[in-house]
Amino acid sequence: MTGSTSRDIAVIGGGPAGLAAAEMLAGAGHRVTLYERMPSVGRKFLIAGRGGLNLTHSEPLASFHQRYHPAQPPLAGAIDAFSPQALRDWCEGLGQPTFIGSSGRVFPKSFKASPLLRAWLGRLDTIGVRILTRHRFLGWDADGSLAFETPDGRLTVAPQATLMSLGGASWPRLGSDGTWVPLLTGAGIKVSPLKPANVGFSVPWSDVFRERFAGTPLKRVALSLGDETVRGEAMVTADGIEGGAVYALSRLIRDEIEAEGEARLVLDLRPDLTEDALMRRLASYKPGASLATRLRKDAGLDPVAASLLREAAGRALPSSAGELAALIKAAHLRLLAPRPIERAISTAGGVAFEAIDSRFMLKARPGAFVAGEMLDWEAPTGGYLLQGAFSSARAAAAGMMDWLDEAGPDL
Ligand SMILES: Cc1cc2nc3c(=O)[nH]c(=O)nc-3n(C[C@H](O)[C@H](O)[C@H](O)COP(=O)(O)OP(=O)(O)OC[C@H]3O[C@@H](n4cnc5c(N)ncnc54)[C@H](O)[C@@H]3O)c2cc1C
């Protein structure tokens, strides 16, 4: 323990941020109770592990920091203090060594979240963290105590310090539903509007295209908006487009739609070929070959890419090799709106950094600290989200211990 006094601490929200904070606080000798509204903790963490738990990323810290928007110095400081390597060491300490995948992303060797969560909960139990599930935070009572809805009725508690890690508003059935926003704004705390992040967008597909290609991947494409280009894969959905490459641009697309009413996404359907090379291939067709055959055989487009070209052109396709090549290298798609926040991977917006101090404590509520996705930052997929949750939680827990030490034993 940094000071000599063991305190009663409430952590509210049992996602990775809350669990990480609870571990640090209980490890330092405090009496920690974690309140979670769902019947079990870590539900989003478990879902994150479904397709491979991408815990963090191996790129150098300088570029790592640039993934977070808006740039928040306290968050950058938190990541320096509990770095991607520290997160990997922590994971290994729980018997789950990690590896770096081909894209630089870091995963546990087991690939899953469940063995890690099991070992983690075992450790929390050993160090005395009390977990109360089915306890929903309702806000503060007039005397400053915390109110919860529980299966046994309303409960109020008055810990010496509180750490909130209530998550964003994506995938609300896993527990984080963003209903904490009015509780905090009502208490005079500035919260930037919650918005979908790492999300798909609606596209006005023709009925024919939608019926034939919903659920079909667009492989090896490059997507651009303004100066940003991302190579990867996207997925055609019944009402739009989603997938890794779209998510990577989703902050910019979302902001463009907000400002302009729609965004023009530029697709390069053959990013591995120059426009010239493509034009030469398209110009050397056999006499009598149909346009469909030329697109398939000469340009190497699969059916979804060839049809998408028609969607983008909005008219019959040109037959000249030059015009076709230009269209294949820069097919413009109109994106009209992000999918709803419930369908997003993560949430932008949240408790404004100006509402907290350098210790992650709410200026309007001394003794109450905030961490994780409920803070106003966003980042792409790639492990940056979990790293942000862990690092901010540990920084907030450290901040709380500093504050408790300063407050002295008579708090
Ligand atoms: C499908 C999917 C895949 C993902 N994959 C990855 C990945 O591979 N890598 C990565 O870095 N990130 C990934 N993420 C994102 C990552 O899971 C989140 O960023 C992370 O879980 C945020 O942690 P948190 O603790 O801040 O919030 P959460 O995990 O959302 O936890 C918040 C907790 O607070 C509880 N809570 C909310 N309101 C109340 C209340 N009023 N009272 C009591 N409890 C409350 C919730 O029930 C929840 O348990 C993925 C997300 C999704 C949806």
TrEMBL record:
<keyword id="KW-0456">Lyase</keyword>
<protein>
    <submittedName>
        <fullName>3-dehydro-bile acid delta(4,6)-reductase</fullName>
        <ecNumber>4.-.-.-</ecNumber>
    </submittedName>
</protein>
<dbReference type="InterPro" id="IPR036188">
    <property type="entry name" value="FAD/NAD-bd_sf"/>
</dbReference>
<keyword id="KW-0274">FAD</keyword>
<feature type="domain" description="RsdA/BaiN/AoA(So)-like insert">
    <location>
        <begin position="195"/>
        <end position="346"/>
    </location>
</feature>
<dbReference type="Pfam" id="PF03486">
    <property type="entry name" value="HI0933_like"/>
</dbReference>
<dbReference type="GO" id="GO:0016829">
    <property type="term" value="F:lyase activity"/>
</dbReference>
<dbReference type="InterPro" id="IPR022460">
    <property type="entry name" value="Flavoprotein_PP4765"/>
</dbReference>
<keyword id="KW-0285">Flavoprotein</keyword>
<dbReference type="InterPro" id="IPR057661">
    <property type="entry name" value="RsdA/BaiN/AoA(So)_Rossmann"/>
</dbReference>
<dbReference type="InterPro" id="IPR023166">
    <property type="entry name" value="BaiN-like_dom_sf"/>
</dbReference>
<dbReference type="Pfam" id="PF22780">
    <property type="entry name" value="HI0933_like_1st"/>
</dbReference>
<dbReference type="InterPro" id="IPR055178">
    <property type="entry name" value="RsdA/BaiN/AoA(So)-like_dom"/>
</dbReference>
<dbReference type="InterPro" id="IPR004792">
    <property type="entry name" value="BaiN-like"/>
</dbReference>
<feature type="domain" description="RsdA/BaiN/AoA(So)-like Rossmann fold-like">
    <location>
        <begin position="8"/>
        <end position="398"/>
    </location>
</feature>
